[in-house]
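Lecture 7 notes: from sequence to structure.

We start with a single chain of 339 residues. Read the sequence below before looking at the structure.
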Amino acid sequence: MSTETATPLSSKRPAPRASLKKRQHGQVRTALWLILPTMALLAVVIGYPIVSAVVMSFQKDAGLDPATGMFVQGGFAGFQNYTHWLFQQCTSASGTVACPPGSLGAQFWNAVGVTFLFTVVTVVLETVFGFWMAIIMNRAFKGRGIVRAAILVPWAIPTAVTAKLWYFIFATTGIANAILHVNVLWVSGEWSSRWAIIIADTWKTTPFMALLILAGLQLIPDEVNEAAKMDGASTVQRFWRVTIPLVKPALMVAVLFRVLDALRIYDLPAILTSGGGGSGNATTTLSILVVDQIRQGPNSASALSTITFLIIFLVAFIFVRFLGANVVRTQESQQKGTL
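Now the structure, written as tokens:
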């Protein structure tokens, strides 16, 4: 006669809720201790400079008082530094008139226009050429590794070296004029200097776009394209209806990175054209204007840098918000289509 050992009821019961919560609380506390050094480092490296710049932006720059002609220390300025950049109005004997080209407000809005011009044109060109390069690098052919390495060379060159390289190319007696059989002042004219920066920036950063897009292309299964080909889809149809939707998340990440980078462009126009060209500020971007303003007044420059930060943050927020919604819809529609 076999006997069965009764299992205690306590062994079948789940773990008490109190002990489970205690264990979860311990995990959260451990995670907080692990990320605390990183958060402290970010607060010192990023948080303190941002807070310091915002505080300085509400202070007056020390200088001569226009009424008395005597040197005065700075004090609380309120939003005066911001209004000088955004809403400056110039007055004359006849009343309020438009500010001259050299005024702070005119410099700021000119720099905003130049910055967004460079951003839009370069990102569009880099996306088109980068996609083309990524498709080439994604194909299987002999010597593909050498081609990939050669395409990435411009991106590996430091920006300062790239600027000097293209400075010699766009010189009056440089290679560009010799090949085109023209005599264009590339770094002195208004629009020629802008196109010189656009060409140089596109040449340097297109490999970066191609690398990120290539990562997205390699995630597309070969069976998807083969199935579309068996269904009778042409090359153009497969590109727009298969490749583009599947590579869209990686493409949007690449475009976002380049937009944020282009909005902060400084070294290439500063070295290639010294921020000049044409009337003297044809290639002056927001970052160049901030650096130039630091030499005249740090508090006013802090206000300008804060405005620049808010512009870039707003563009990034709108960009991520808009594209993030599209990514969710695309993934949901693809999942519904496979069910």
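The chain has a mean pLDDT of 80. Keep this in mind for problem set 3.
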